[in-house]
Amino acid sequence: MSIAQEIIKIKSELPSSARLVAVSKFHPADSIMEAYDAGQRIFGESRPQELAAKAPVLPDDIQWHFIGHLQTNKLKMVIPYVSLIHSVDSKRLLLEINKFAVARNLKVNCLLELFVATEETKQGFSEDELLELISDIAENPLQGVELCGIMGMASYTDDQELIRSEFKKLSGTFEFIKNKYPDRFPEFKQLSMGMSNDYHIALEYGSTLVRIGTRIFGERVY
Fold first, then answer.
1. Residue 168: inside a domain, yes or no?
2. Residue 26 DSSP label
């Protein structure tokens, strides 16, 4: 199927509570435009240099989401373009985003990345670390950051029961925080989980943002 056909098919499978993030990393602007012309507006990038090169030459109404590991020295290449950072994986990074934003009178929408997978290569907070950080921020709010929810990645495996258990943990932590701090974090509404190989399972556990790249664009171009 073409890029446009895949976009239309995936969107037809999503409940009204979930949105598609078309992961366009490693794919050129003309492929993004094919998805854009099919009605897609949210695109995910994971490399700051690539995002900074693409965003200025593509339509202004695209909502760029940053989904990769973000180094503190690359904030200036990301924050001016993005509507949401999915991958805040350390307290240090969160505080640096806040510092950058406050200095420029900005409010940056962020998701905290919770580590639930079996692969050590994946990033993120442990559940205890994340809950402690949330408690700290509830007491000492960050002026330059809006906490909007949680992001996570399941293990890359064919074991669907393991994937389900990991998505269940993500969903449970998300609901716990949302229900405990409704006044402190009023925008805590997004649960970003599910990719090309497991998004149907993620939707069963309440994902509001599915990050799908390979199924839409094929294998990476560069």
1. yes
2. T
